[in-house]
Design brief:
Elements lengths: L7 E5 L8 E4 L2 H6 L10 E6 L2 E11 L14 E2 L8 H13 L4 H8 L2 H4 L9 E6 L1 H4 L10 H13 L2 E2 H7 L2 H9 L3 E6 L19 H9 L6 E7 L5 H14 L3 E5 L7 H10 L4 E4 L5 H13 L4 E4 L11 E6 L17 H12 L2 E6 L4 H8 L4 E5 L10 E6 L5 E2 L2 E2 H12 L3 E5 L8 E4 L16 E3 L4 E3 L6 E3 L12 E4 L3 H11 L4 E5 L9 H11 L3 E5 L12 E6 L3 H4 L6 H13 L10 E6 L5 H9 L1 H14 L7 E9 L2 H18 L6 E14 L2 E10 L2 H17 L7 E6 L14
Parallel strand pairs: 9-14, 9-15, 10-12, 10-13, 11-12, 13-14, 16-28, 19-26, 19-27, 25-26, 27-28
Antiparallel strand pairs: 1-2, 1-4, 3-4, 3-5, 6-7, 6-8, 17-18, 20-24, 21-22, 22-23, 29-31, 29-32, 30-31
The protein binds adenosine-5'-diphosphate and zinc ion (2 copies).
One zinc ion binds next to loops.
Length: 748
């Protein structure tokens, strides 16, 4: 008798709904499909609404809350075995719950796009060419007229099979396809040869300094442990990573290495490739869909031994995970801010725990969260306190803007120091975290200022492009010649951005190369390469830019760093702004004097006596961070208290606000406010109107994550089912994504 228990699959589909959907497996499919094709982690095609979509099996069951007869059938199976290994699958389920995000959307937004579209994964090995039997029989005199084609034939005759990669170094694709059309050659896929352990290293590893050795020894490769490698820039963290990776490779395991932005640090990739003889793949936003899928599959198959990637690479399947490294752990770019919001750092720790492998978080300026995790014993704190080689820490100098005038943002003392440095044949780095020519345009006659119609913000003057641009919604208009309010011609660009300071420096030093690095200048391909080439050439130059310049670069010949505006970090409503200022200043300063010459750092500020600035400069980031910690505790902010924010946006302010009143009512009916759990709001966000939408926040705070998490899940479900939820755009932000606290920070 046939088995009558139905097989039901719970399937995640790309949808904003926070639930899975039940589908029935037709009995002939159960009978004919390979068992592995019906397991969690496999893709299927299903009808969803009126569309046919790719879904992913999350669970198998024989129960459903719906009427069996009403369940739709699975249309087709795509994979013959799970695409995602079970441990990674568990990570997704965990993340969707933790970040209050629909599982289907979380899964599908991180899968390579071709897999989302239902394509089959490409074959795994190395693509090669060999002679067909027709080709083997070809006489020595044929193809005399086609010399290149003949050369390919001869090459394949001597070598048997040659990888596609190697062949296209010397011959064009056209030649190959002509030969293939004549059926003289044929493609085959060969297993990628394994690197024997003896030849793992291309280059000897360095003899470690004692503190590096201690750090390396403290990282246990047999089980989960999390280390914070806290070492000033240039202290040799990367060398510890490399030797730790070497250990993992010797255990025949893979290493996953996350870095903030690959395009900004090509040197990192080179250091890995120079050291190891193993296949390394890169995963970053610059890849084509095909390249991304290829790299993803090589990691999944275990062929790629080192996977180097940016934030979303944390979701790469690994066949034999052995180590996770996350460099510059404090970096903002690890936070995905749109759609499925997650922190790659936090997920990396969870993933290491689930895979039972070590993880290293490295930084010269660790986040308060990670330092606190060391304090309470969750992470081990490994400190590298001296710079490798001869490099010494730079000298700081504060420039008081209350007493010194500036031109285009640059004080006279700073300008003189730039001149001296160039005269000594050294390089200068100028840092200003504001792109464009000027942050505002105003009328000298009537006081009119150019504002964005869709945001509560001013338009930025971009002089080279002749435009005013909103940096929040990208609205653009031609720069007016006349005041729209009083018709006066006296329009002035007020304040300075990188473009203005760049122009001024170029005027002051007409013989010197001045290069700008910001989101505008790097839009042009090759800008970063020119910056690296110029810096490497050692010739005197000025590099001016935003925080893009602060990241991990190693510029040997830079001996002066000038920070044009330290004040924006001292007076921002964001509760993390002091921490960030400390990180940024330390990172920028770390670009100075990395070679053998000592470096100087000039910091321009209106607050030369600010105690935090002084602490940072005199005692360094470690003491600075220690000082911030009790402040966070006192004001009950993360990492000491858990917070979440429900955010609603609508083109009508009252709708957004009303929705959050509803959210608060629902939440309070589930968990009433107590001293341990409090609600604040709805309140308008600091920038209330952005891109034409009004934004409101409801803040929920708790002593314990354990109360916050289930409460938010329950509220999300109720809100999702409420009719008003379709009128507003809403989301739940966990504490790591909150940058707009609604309550005042400075309680006097
Ligand atoms: P970080 O990653 O902390 O910025 P790096 O690992 O890049 O530091 O080291 C800075 C410089 O010091 C590099 O040029 C590196 O080759 C060198 N270095 C690091 N460790 C050693 C060592 N043990 N012996 C000699 N040179 C070292
Ligand atoms: Zn006017
Ligand atoms: Zn705008």
């Amino acid at each position: 008798m046939a088995d009558l228990t139905p097989l039901i699959l719970r399937v995640a589909v790309p949808s904003p709904l926070r639930r899975l959907f039940d589908y029935l497996v037709p009995s002939e499919m159960v009978a004919n499909a390979p068992q592995a094709a019906l397991q969690p982690g496999c893709r299927v095609t299903v009808t969803f609404g009126r569309r046919e979509v790719t879904g992913l099996i999350i669970e198998r069951t024989d129960q459903t809350e719906f009427e069996l007869a009403k369940l739709k059938p699975i249309n087709a199976l795509i994979d013959s075995e799970p695409l995602l290994p079970p441990s990674l699958f568990k990570l997704f389920i965990w993340a969707a719950r933790y970040y209050q995000h629909p599982i289907g959307d979380a899964l599908f937004s991180t899968l390579p796009i071709l897999l989302r579209k239902g394509e089959l994964p490409p074959s795994q090995g190395q693509r090669c060419w060999q002679l067909s039997s027709l080709g083997k029989g070809l006489g020595p005199d044929s193809l005399k007229q086609a010399r290149k084609q003949r050369a390919v034939i001869d090459l394949l005759r001597t070598e048997g099979t040659v990888s596609d990669e190697r062949i296209v170094e010397s011959f064009s694709r056209a030649i190959l396809s002509q030969l293939e059309q004549k059926s003289l050659i044929e493609p085959i896929v060969r297993d990628i040869p394994k690197t024997p352990l003896e030849t793992l290293l291309k280059q000897d590893s360095l003899a470690l300094y004692p503190s590096q050795q201690q750090a390396l020894d403290a990282i246990d490769h047999h089980s989960f442990n999390c280390s914070l490698l806290d070492g000033i820039t240039g202290s040799g963290k990367t060398e510890v990573y490399l030797q730790s990776i070497e250990k993992a490779l010797r255990y025949e395991r893979q290493a996953l290495v996350l870095i903030p932005e690959i395009s900004l640090t090509p040197q990192t990739e080179k250091r890995f490739r120079d050291r190891f003889n193993v296949p390394i793949v890169m995963l970053h936003s610059g890849l084509s869909d095909k390249q991304r899928l290829q790299a993803w599959m090589l990691a999944r198959a275990g062929t790629a031994k080192i996977i180097l990637g940016t934030r979303s690479a944390i979701f790469t399947p690994l066949q034999a995970p052995g180590l996770i490294i996350l460099d510059e752990e404090h970096d903002q770019s690890y936070k995905q801010q749109e759609g499925f919001r997650y922190s790659a750092r936090d997920l990396a720790v969870i993933r290491a725990q689930q895979e039972n492998i070590p993880i290293i978080l490295g930084s010269a300026t660790p986040s308060l969260e990670s330092l606190n995790n060391c304090r309470v014993g969750r992470y081990q704190h490994l400190v590298l306190s001296t710079r490798a080689g001869n490099a010494v820490q730079p000298d700081w100098k504060i420039i008081d803007l209350k007493t010194e005038r500036t031109d285009s943002g640059i004080a006279a003392t700073t300008l003189a120091a730039i001149g001296d440095t160039l005269n000594n044949n050294h390089q200068v780095l100028v840092f200003l975290n504001r792109r464009g020519f000027a942050p505002a345009m105003l009328c000298h006659q009537c006081g009119w200022t150019a504002e964005c119609h869709s945001c509560d913000s001013r338009l930025t003057v971009h002089r080279a492009r002749g435009r005013l641009i909103c940096h929040h919604c990208d609205y653009q208009q031609r720069t007016p010649q006349q005041c729209p309010s009083c018709q006066s011609h006296q329009l002035v660009a007020a304040g300075e951005g990188t473009e203005r300071s760049e122009a001024y420096l170029q005027r002051c030093f007409p013989q010197t190369k001045v290069l700008r690095v910001d989101r505008d200048s790097t839009r042009k391909k090759g800008t970063m390469q020119e910056v690296f080439d110029t810096a490497d050439s050692g010739q005197p130059c000025i590099l001016i830019g935003t925080q893009m310049l602060a990241k991990g670069h190693h510029f040997e010949n830079v001996t002066l760093v000038a920070v044009l505006d330290a004040d924006s970090g001292l007076f921002s409503p964001d509760f993390r702004s002091h921490e960030r200022m400390g990180q940024l200043l330390t990172q920028v300063a770390g670009r100075s004097g990395r070679g053998d010459m000592p470096g100087r750092v000039f910091v321009q500020t209106h607050q030369p006596d600010h105690p935090l600035l002084e602490l940072l400069i005199t005692r360094g980031y470690g003491h600075f961070a220690e000082q911030l910690m009790p402040q966070r505790q006192l004001t009950q902010l993360p990492p000491f208290r858990h917070m979440a924010v429900i955010r609603a946006e609508s083109n009508r302010a009252d709708e957004a606000e009303a929705f959050l009143h509803l959210a608060r009512k629902i939440a309070q009916s589930l968990v009433p406010a107590t001293p341990q759990l409090s609600y604040l709001g709805p309140l308008p966000a600091i920038m209330e109107k952005r891109a034409g939408r009004f934004r409101y926040l409801l803040q929920v705070e708790s002593d314990q994550r354990a109360t916050l998490q289930p409460l938010l899940s329950a509220v999300a479900l109720e809100l999702e089912n409420h009719k008003d939820s379709r009128r507003v755009r809403w989301s739940i932000l966990s504490l790591i994504h909150i940058s707009e606290p609604t309550r005042p920070l400075y309680i006097s």
